[in-house]
Specification:
Layout lengths: L11 E5 L8 E5 L8 E6 L2 E6 L5 E4 L10 E4 L9 E3 L9 E3 L4 E3 L5
Antiparallel strand pairs: 1-2, 3-4, 5-6, 7-8, 8-9
Length: 110
């Protein structure tokens, strides 16, 4: 399992707000709890980001393609809103993107 930490050196990491399906994905102080631990499961050329909590997947709520769309925890379905491309933060490309419905957040927009 991995910790997914924000690059601004705040020590904040990605977590599920609760252990329930549909819970928000949030940033919080890292304490090593199961809701802060993730595995990357390769699916062809993309990845699912799965939590140690009940193997829930990070997904974009209702496949919303607008900026600021909520990320939530859901049962794994392998739908495009749960498919992620992991790119090096050193590249001059977006450092994360969800390829479902062309969602793309890059460093210059954040």
């Amino acid at each position: 399992y991995y910790k997914i930490e924000v690059r601004n050196k705040s020590g904040k990491c990605v977590a599920i707000d609760s252990t329930l399906k549909g819970a928000n994905i949030i940033m919080t102080d890292y304490i090593g709890a199961d809701n802060q631990l993730w595995k990357m499961e390769k699916i062809n050329m993309v990845y699912a980001i799965r939590s140690k909590v009940d193997n829930l997947s990070v997904e974009i709520f209702e496949s919303n393609i607008n900026r600021g769309a909520a990320a939530i925890a859901g049962d794994f379905t392998s739908t495009p809103n749960q498919q992620w491309e992991l790119l090096s933060a050193e590249e001059e490309k977006p450092f994360w993107e969800n390829i479902g419905n062309n969602i793309n957040t890059n460093r210059t927009e954040m």
